[in-house]
Amino acid sequence: MKFENLWPTVVGSDKFEIPGLVDHIFLNYNLGDLGKEADGYNIFDGHDQSQVMKQFENKIYEAFDSYLKETLGKSIDDWVEYEMKGWITGHGKDYSMTIHNHSGAQLSGVFYIMAEDPAAGGDIVFSDPRTNGNRGYDEYFSPWFARKHHRPATGDFMIFPSFTYHHVNPYYSTLRICIPVDLFLYRG
């Protein structure tokens, strides 16, 4: 019998380290007033030209490029132009996020800058994108439709197709900082 894995949704994960990034964010961003993220604020808009943010942006580029190479055999350079949009979120006690996707982007990632308390919850949970795919199946088939949970730690990142629905369970500690990033690829 021949088997094919059709319509896979590949979620990539790894670790990163940018010395000084946490301190830079605390010193240069107002974590008490991040409402700008709802207004389309982008930390990669060229406003912050610090060396540490350039290193972080390069790391994100490398991570997205690696994902494309592994999943499609392509590089960001195969497109005429690209744009990355990122924002700071995930802070404050009882933070959570309802189910959503990142419509319009091709790839999305979340980079955990500070997630020191692994017992505090805050899992990111990915759902099967085949809406209602489990209809008519009994519980023996549940592994086919299982959600992917990831309890983040400082330095973790995950990259996934932007159509992938996900949510964040409540985080029961005082502070966590993550930076979601969307990658937009343009062919001309």
Could you give a short description of this structure?
This protein has helices spanning 21-28, 51-72, and strands spanning 12-15, 81-86, 95-100, 107-114, 124-126, 148-150, 156-161, 166-171, 177-186.
Describe this structure in words.
It is a single chain. It is built from two helices and nine strands, in the order βααββββββββ. The mean pLDDT is 90. The protein has 188 residues and is of the alpha+beta class. The strands form two sheets. A five-stranded antiparallel sheet has the order 1-7-4-9-2, with helices on one face. Strands 3-8-5-6 form a four-stranded antiparallel sheet, with no helix packed on it. 16% of the residues lie in helices and 28% in strands.
Inertia-based shape: globular
- Spans of at least 5 consecutive residues whose pLDDT stays below 50 are none
How much of the polypeptide forms β-strand, as a percent range? 25-35%
Percent helix: 10-25%
**Strand-and-helix sequence, N→C?**
EHHEEEEEEEE
From the alpha carbons, calculate the radius of gyration and give it in angstroms: 17 Å
- How is the quaternary structure best described? single chain
Mean pLDDT: 90
Number of helices: 2
Backbone structural class: alpha+beta
Largest sheet at a glance?
Answer: 5 strands, antiparallel
In order across it, which strands form the biggest sheet? 1-7-4-9-2
Question: What is the number of strand segments?
Answer: 9
Distance between the termini: 43 Å
